[in-house]
Each structure stands twice: as C-alpha cells, then as structure tokens.
C-alpha cells in the first residue's frame, strides 16, 4: 500500500501507522499541512473494508481539514485520524487509552476531535494519556447553554450567518422575512438552524427520517412537514442541506428550484463538476466547508481561551469569507467551490505561524 503514489496523496507532511496487538488498535494519522498551526481534525472509527480504504479516507479528510481551517482564518493545520474497526464491536476503554498514547507520541503535531464512530466521552478517555484531544471540555456554548463540547450550536449559527450572506448576494436583501427555506435534516445542526431562521421570520419546510424531529419543528417553529423525496425540488428560495453528503448531483441539480443553497452538510457536491453545474443553472452555492466552519472555530477557542463573545465574533467572519467567494466567482466565471479552494490555498500555502 503505497502512500506517495496514492491518488489522494497531496503533499501530505506526515502519515503515521499505529498498531497495538494487546488492544487490537490499528490506526492511521495523517497531517496534511501544518503551515498555519497544529493539524486538528476528527478521529473516525470505521469498519473499513480494507486498509487501503482507511488510507484513502484519512488522506482525503485530512486535506479537507487544511482547507476548512485556512478558509476560516484559524491558526490550525489539517489532519485526521482513523481507527480501523467496528465502533460497536471493537471499541474498548483499553483501545481508546492506547490511541491516546499514540496521539501523545506525535507531540501535538495532530490534535483529535470527535467524528463518526467516536464521541466526546471516547475522546475524554484518550485524554487520560494525551493533552492532544479537543472538543472535550464542558463550556458555555455560544447559545449560553452549558455543553460537553458539542460544536453543533456554533455550526448552526455559522450556517445561519452564511445563509444570510448568500441571500444578500443573490437576492439583494438583508432580512429573511417571508423567505421560504427547505431544510433537509433537522438534527443537531438543522434544528438549531431552523430556530434561527424562525426568529428571523423565514417560512420553513422540513424533512427528516426521524418523525419526532419533524413534529417538533412543526409544533414549535410553525414549519411545514415535507416528504424526504420532495425536499430538494421544493419551490422555495433557499435550500439548506443538513443531513447527508453527495446530494447535489446529476439527478438532483436539474430539479432544484431554490436560488440559494446554504446548509451545513459536509461534502454536498457529489463530484467537482457539480459546482459549475449549479453556477450554470444560476443557483448560488455556499461551499459547505466555508459555511459549516462554526464547529471547528468553536473547538479552536477551547484550546486558546474560550469566551462565547470571541467565538461568536469569529464565526461571524464566515459572512465576509463567503461574500469574497461570491464576488470572485461573479468576476472570474469560476464556480464558488473552486473559488473557495483557491482562497483557502492562498491562506495556507504561504502561511507560517
Ligand atoms: P445529526 O445526525 O444530528 O442530524 C442529521 C439529521 O439528518 C438527523 O436528524 C437524521 O435523521 C437526518 N437524516 C439522515 N438522513 C436523512 C435523509 N435521507 N433525509 C432526511 N433527513 C435525514 O447530524 P448533525 O450534527 O446535525 O450534522 C448534520 C450535517 O452537518 C452532517 O453532514 C455533518 O457532517 C455536518 N456538520 C456538522 C457539524 C456539527 O457541528 N455537528 C459541523 C460541520 C458539519
């Protein structure tokens, strides 16, 4: 299994393999770029079909974190770790403790946060043996609520701010009163986004595979329930994907009636060319890794001194970053996702801490 000639290898600085026979730990840690600071990113535990698949994931995801943190103007690099194994069957306290020791051996080049297959308590167990875990301290969130480190309120607020910036650019208005917004997925982020939008006077259309989430949005936020099959093609002003990736594709894009797409889901574009397909249809797409950076901003401040006011002020810069992306896209004819990549590269390639 070659790293340097791997299709997802992108000048990564460091790739470490860890194995511990006693606990069964098999993990890979990748640091993509650390020009702006230590590489921070999730620790994913997944039952990969092969080591090759795990390597592909860690290379791809660590690069994504470099771009996300640079675009958010954080003094962080991009990294990711993967533990190979079924989180339900193979995750033990001993394995997590060993993962903590492995992270400590990297001396802070990489800092782990929760991801699919790991939770805040899991990271706290790793933290018995390393200081290089993040998003694990109880703190007052930007919503004023005490939380165990869940970044969802920050992600939802950033998405709301970004959605407003997109509306301003595309529809030329500052207020959301009466605008129709379709939200796919009213979970941790989507429901909180719906709350912000409701307060701002938007008309909400929601779907979720968990009916109780939909019922809550209907009763508390006056939302209209919509079927999962109809949500993307609804006749609304704004579409906010907050559930799944790859939902913007050859099949869905021709059916979208919204003029703005602004939601928190990761990896919304199925392929890179869907970026331009949206632009050609006149749909303004707020690149996912720009608009959903509230969570990583929140986690960053846990390490450097967290006050809700500081975090909120930084999250609000998502609006400026998006405005710059939209203007450059108009001027250059390039799609917004491509511009977001360019802007991120400008922010990390020449940067040194
Ligand atoms: P979540 O699991 O709490 O919410 C997702 C919701 O989508 C769930 O309620 C789920 O039932 C629903 N859902 C799943 N499949 C669906 C479908 N086919 N149709 C309709 N609804 C469906 O997750 P979350 O933390 O709210 O994250 C939402 C998205 O935002 C994810 O893509 C996540 O990667 C991304 N994101 C989250 C954060 C964060 O801070 N939580 C940060 C950055 C990005």
TrEMBL record:
Glutamate/phenylalanine/leucine/valine/L-tryptophan dehydrogenase C-terminal domain segment(s): 149-351
One Gene Ontology MF term: nucleotide binding
InterPro entries (alphabetical): Aminoacid_DH-like_N_sf, Glu/Leu/Phe/Val/Trp_DH, Glu/Leu/Phe/Val/Trp_DH_C, Glu/Leu/Phe/Val/Trp_DH_dimer, Glu/Phe/Leu/Val/Trp_DH_bac/arc, NAD(P)-bd_dom_sf
Positions with a binding annotation for NAD(+) = 185-190
The UniProt keywords, alphabetically, are: NAD, Nucleotide-binding, Oxidoreductase
Q: Which residues form a coiled coil?
A: none
Q: Which GO terms describe its biological process?
A: amino acid metabolic process
The answer to whether the entry has keyword Nucleus is no
Looking at the record's lineage, which domain of life comes first? Bacteria
Which Gene3D superfamilies does the UniProt entry name for this protein?
Leucine Dehydrogenase, chain A, domain 1 (3.40.50.10860), NAD(P)-binding Rossmann-like Domain (3.40.50.720)
Where is the catalytic site?
Answer: 80
**What's this chain's function?**
Catalyzes the reversible oxidative deamination of glutamate to alpha-ketoglutarate and ammonia.
Q: Give the family from UniProt.
A: Belongs to the Glu/Leu/Phe/Val dehydrogenases family.
Protein name, entry field:
Glu/Leu/Phe/Val dehydrogenase
Protein's organism: Neptunomonas concharum
């Amino acid at each position: 299994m070659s790293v340097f000639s791997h299709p997802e290898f992108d000048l990564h600085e460091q790739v470490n393999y860890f194995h511990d026979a006693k606990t069964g730990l098999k993990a890979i840690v990748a640091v993509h770029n650390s020009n702006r600071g230590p590489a921070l990113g999730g620790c994913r535990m997944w039952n990969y079909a092969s080591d090759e698949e795990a390597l592909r994931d860690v290379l791809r995801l660590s690069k994504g974190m470099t771009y996300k943190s640079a675009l958010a103007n954080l003094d962080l690099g991009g990294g990711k770790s993967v533990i190979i194994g079924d989180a339900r069957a193979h995750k033990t306290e001993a394995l997590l403790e060993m993962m903590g020791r492995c992270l400590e051996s990297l001396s802070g080049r990489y800092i782990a946060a929760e991801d699919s297959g790991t939770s805040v308590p899991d990271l706290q167990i790793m933290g018995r043996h390393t200081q290089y875990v993040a998003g694990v301290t109880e703190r007052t969130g930007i919503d004023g609520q005490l939380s165990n480190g869940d970044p969802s309120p920050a992600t939802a607020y950033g998405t709301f701010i970004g959605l407003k910036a997109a509306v301003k650019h595309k529809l030329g208005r500052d207020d959301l009163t009466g605008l129709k917004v379709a939200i796919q997925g009213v979970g941790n982020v989507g429901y909180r986004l719906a709350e912000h939008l409701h307060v701002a006077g938007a008309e909400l259309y929601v779907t979720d595979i968990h009916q109780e989430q939909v019922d809550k949005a209907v009763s508390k936020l006056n939302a209209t329930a919509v079927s999962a099959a109809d949500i993307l093609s609804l006749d609304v002003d704004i579409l906010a994907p907050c559930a799944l990736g790859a939902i913007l594709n050859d099949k869905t894009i021709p059916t979208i009636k919204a003029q703005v797409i602004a939601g928190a889901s990761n990896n919304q574009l199925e392929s890179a060319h869907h970026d331009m397909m949206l632009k050609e249809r006149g749909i303004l797409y707020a690149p996912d890794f720009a608009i959903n950076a509230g969570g990583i901003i929140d986690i960053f401040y846990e390490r450097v001194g967290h006050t809700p006011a500081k975090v909120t002020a930084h999250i609000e810069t998502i609006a400026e970053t998006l405005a710059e992306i939209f203007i450059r896209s108009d001027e250059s004819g390039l799609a917004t996702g491509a511009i977001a990549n360019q802007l991120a590269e400008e922010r990390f390639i020449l940067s040194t801490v």
